[in-house]
C-alpha cells in the first residue's frame, strides 16, 4: 500500500485490511486518528509511504493457530527438542487416559514419555509408547521449526470441532467439551515450507483426533504420518507418508476433505458404541431400501 500527498478531507477515514470473520485484520494508525495527511511518512518496511503485508493464509481445513489464536508458541532451541504440555481435561487415547503429552519439534506427539529418536520408527513398533505422528521426520534439521498449541473448553472452536466430528461420524449427536490444537510450521513464518496440524477432541466418553496437512517441501529423509499404541494393538500409517509421495498429503483424506484425516480414539466402550451405532443405522438404511424396492 503506497501513499503520496493527501488533501484535507472532512469525513471518517480508514486504511488497512480485514478478512471474513476478522480472523486477520490491521488498521494503519494514522488513517483513523486524524493524521491521515501523514500517511506518506508512515511505513512498516522502512520505506516512507509504503506498507507491505503477507497475504498467505493456511488452508481452510486448519483450525486457527499462532498469535491470532492466542497460542502458546515455541521456536526450536535445541535439536530433537520437545515441550511437555499438561491438559486441562484428561484425554483418552485408545486404551489409556492421559493428563499430558509431549510436543516434539520433529512433528511427533507422545503420551507416555519423550521419544529420543529423531526419525521415525515405522509402526507397528509393538513398543511401549502411544503416539501420533503428524509427520515424523528430521524436519528440524532442514528448516527452522515453530510450533504452537492451545486448548479450549468453550467458544467457537468447540462448535467447529462438534460440527466436524458429527460430519465425519454421523448420527452420533456428539458434543465436544475439550479441544487441543497443535500446529507445526517449518521454514519462513509466513508461507512455511511445511505445515502440519493435529486436533485432539473429546466429549463425554468419546474422543477423536484430526490430522491436517498443508504444503510439504522436498525432504531427503525417512518420514511417517499416522499413529501407534502400546504393543501396536491399534495402529495406522497414512500411505503417502512413507512411499515417497509425502508432498501429496495435502490431497489425501479418509473423510472426503482433502488434506484431513479423522480417527476415533476413545476407549473400547466408546469405540464399540460408535461401531454398533453406525452398523445399526446402516442396517436400517439397507432394510428401508429393501422395503421400498419391494
Automatic annotation (TrEMBL):
This is NIDO domain-containing protein. It comes from Cyprinus carpio (Common carp). GO terms for biological process: cell-matrix adhesion. InterPro entries: Alpha-tectorin, NIDO_dom. Residues 134-267 form the NIDO domain. It holds the Pfam family NIDO.
